[in-house]
Records
---
Amino acid sequence: MKRLLLAVLFLLPGLALGQGLSGPSAVGPGGATSKAIAFPTKCDSSGSPGAATCQAPAGQAAIAASASSVVITNALVSTTSIVIATLQATDSTCTSIKSIVPTAGSFTITANATCTAAAKVGWIVFR
């Protein structure tokens, strides 16, 4: 996982997202600077749990109660895309992401169990 994170951080400015790094910077140990990632567009469909359509490189969705996955339709996604997702709200059963499977034009985020309440998920696509 550390290697993937380092690869993502190293390659991020050259990816096909249309934007580099932007936002406030801070000076860290040894004088190194860091910047927050800011996307020009993102979408949030977490207020309506279940399948969603979003044509942005990042966003939020929600796995519906009594479901264990959510499908996001996104034309930026291909079978070779890297999609990273994290739960931003959990319940007693739905506590982690089990898998993220990209296909041509969509991806499926699957949790470890069936959610008893809507579970908000944040995601980002790297092409």
---
Amino acid sequence: MKNKQSCRFITALAACGVLCLGASAAMAQLANAEATTQPVTVRPELVKPPTRFAGDLPPEAPREFRAAWIATVQNIDWPTKRDLTTEQQQQEAIAILDRLVELNMNAAVLQIRTTCDALYKSDLEPWSIYLTGEQGKAPEPYYDPLEFWVAESQKRGIELHAWFNPYRAKHAQAKDTKLAASHIANTNPEVVKEYGGFLWMDPGEPFAAQRSYDVFMDVIKRYDVDGIHIDDYFYPYPVRDPKHAGDVDFPDGPSWAKHLEKAGKTAMPTRPSTGPSTLPAADDRSDWRRDNVNQLVKRIHEGSREIKPWVKFGISPFGIPRAGRAPGIAGFDQYEKLYADAELWLKEGWCDYWTPQLYWPIAQKPQAFPVLVDYWIAANTNKNVHFWPGLYTGRLIEAGARKFHPQEPVDQINQTRARGEKANGHVHFSMKVLMDKTDPGVQLLRDYAYVTPALVPASPWLGDKVPAAPEATVRVDDQSVTLIVKSSEGEPARWWAVWNQNAEGWGLEVHPGSKTSFTFPKGTTAVVVSAVSRTGIEGARQRTDVKAN
């Protein structure tokens, strides 16, 4: 982005209101990309956006979803070890949330189901090995990690999204792990298959699909999460057959045979990949596999709406569409290999936000970041779906040719911001790199991308009630100015958008709705506060001028 575009971004900011994946899966994605080294590119000059804004009234608060994936599989991000005490786990969680606040970010995507397990109290699946080192064993002293994360996130005004792997049942790097007696591989071994060193629930088995659906709905019912989230793991990434050319086929023969028997071996019209979902042809195994995944995605979306309409459902598929769809783009075909008809889900609006994993640098032409951004923006014809691409910020700390230039994540964010409201957010993989305060790329994010806080973009289709203007009073002493707010009747405030004015202009702070007083330094001349609902709807502003004692 040239300097002129950077200036446009600054103006817009003033005016506008792996994925884990697991490291192994992220690497699998990149291995399937054709380019293996990054081309030399000229970096745009960075211009620091303003933190204060002139005018009699403050501008609209900026809107941007700023999130990070917090991977628990293989203890990538949290907890960092399997033998931590309850207190140590909680301290690590608090450190992560405090770091998000420090970086002016506003959301966390926490992995709570890695391998048909649970990082929360569940009657459906066993406690995760990544919590205690033993699957089925609860934390000691006992606490519910998801309940803790929800409470601590809300204290800080951070959205918490619960991230699930729909089908994976055991990680390849946990081959010596003893599965709990209550694990599905022991209770219902007929629906679990070994493939590529992993265990997978067979998506074609109705019991397996129902189990995943029940797990999603159970979490939505019992926890006050802001969103639920799935990544790119549907049918597994293929493994090569060492004896024959091609891939090893997923061993779903029994469920396929049952489907054929139920269908009477009579071929029915095949569902078009871009049309409404119907039963696939009985003799088309690939379409049948895709429909298995389609039906689960659709059910999760519909079920979430029925239980808690305000909860967002996000999908983070592999970042490349079908071959030939995006100009100049080449690479792995998730439609054929993962049986993921991602473009259908987007077209049908079976989610509330779309986070394709765009894990390649801007200048890598076969998987060029800006080309993929534009493709997915054009494909997103549904007004009720946000586009928030996934960024592989973790490549800042990789070694060798795949290591990102320190400026790459900021440049990618500026690329998305240049598209305006059509791309008003992003998600970093993963939290680990953002915890490194010394990394040059993370420092650039802090100093150039996140200089002010931002509200999460509104999702009025999830609830459009407008909060009333709060009651506001100001107290002044010799050292400071204190704003005291009280919610009016009606839609409660999930956040407060608080602007304070001094000689340098208006500055924004975003606080959780549970907070009722805010202190500013001497010299503050006015404050403006508004309530924001949990679906992001901002109410009327309340201005209070500060009178000197």
---
Amino acid sequence: MRFLPIVAASTLGMLAAVGGYTFLYAKGYSYVTNDPAACANCHIMEDHYRAWMKSSHRAVAVCNDCHTPPGFVSKYTTKAINGFNHSLAFTTGRFSRTPPDHAPQRGRDRKGLPEMPRRHRQRHRGPGP
């Protein structure tokens, strides 16, 4: 019984160290930002990131504008859940080579693409006729 606190403290310390190392190694801190480069941390997203970098869409929206819900709490809750699910899928090897669609909370336009938030629609369309 005397060793129980020592074993518990050692176990918690090792878990914290491994968790901290994993967080830093996986660039977990980058997911707290709004930087689209964080999405490219995942290898299956690299082509999509490069395509976004070359597109006109780059000037009007970043990934989180369309792929997370609006609002601080809902945005970061979604990012946390997605981050956990992605890390679990990649760690266990149970992932699809096709990137997931994280825009179910947004409507779809006639082409089946996610609708843009209102604040981006006008800038994306450009000046009218």
